[in-house]
Amino acid sequence: MENKVNAAIDAATQTKVEAAIKSIASDLPFLIELSATESKRLSHMEAGRADFVRRALYLAQNNPKIQPQFFEMVNYENDINLTQSLDVIIGQTESLLKRLCDTRDQAGSEAYLAALEVYSTTKRGSAKGVDGAKTAYDELKGMFNGQGKAIKPNDTNKA
Predict the structure, then answer these.
(1) Is residue 123 within 8 Å of residue 144, measured between CB atoms?
(2) Where are the domains of the chain?
(3) Cα separation of 51 and 30, whole Å?
(4) What is the pLDDT of residues 11-47, one digit of tens each?
(5) CA distances (Å), origin 59, targets 44, 63, 76, 154, 159
(6) Who's near 156: CB < 8 A, 6+ residues apart?
(7) Helix H or strand E segment including 50
(8) Separation between Cα atoms, residue 138 and residue 115, nearest integer Å
(9) What is the CA angle 135-138-140, rounded to 5?
């Protein structure tokens, strides 16, 4: 069994990373959280629409006669700038989040496969009367109740 991830996060690093995340959140106090319904109702500015939005701003700034009357141009410009800044931050955090999730999933898979090996060993040991194996096997076996089909330790294609 290959072990692609062999690392640990010590308490100091865990605390430092959590503090950094909290710091980022506190540096962006204007962040909001929308419900699924609220998000669905938005007019989303996808990549193809960004050029349209920027060009409309440019034209409105350079032709005051076409600016909507009850419209704060500074808010429009701020929204565009915020969107661009958040796109950069989101790109970086999405990349980091993917790596975090992939590493967690790989380490979890490795740990689970190792646990299955221990389970198999206790099962064989229990069948052969190895001292303490039956107790360990019974304890681990009880944790599988109601969990569906078990994955064999060497059957990594199904994991």
Answers:
(1) no
(2) 46-158
(3) 25
(4) 999 999 999 999 999 999 999 999 999 999 999 888 7
(5) 21, 6, 13, 64, 56
(6) 1, 113
(7) helix 47-62
(8) 14
(9) 110
Which tokens is 134 given?
Answer: 């039956």
Question: How much is the pTM?
Answer: 0.74
d(CA 93, CA 84): 14
- The continuous run of DSSP H or E covering 126 comes out as helix 73-127
Could you identify the residue written with the tokens 């109702």? 41
* Identity at 47, one-letter amino acid code: A
* Closest of 155, 143, 145, 148 to residue 119, by C-alpha: 143
Residue 6's SS3 state is coil
Distances 12 to 17, 88, 129 between C-alpha atoms, Å: 9, 29, 44
Place of tokens 């740990």: 111
* Cβ atoms 67, 57 nearer than 8 A: no
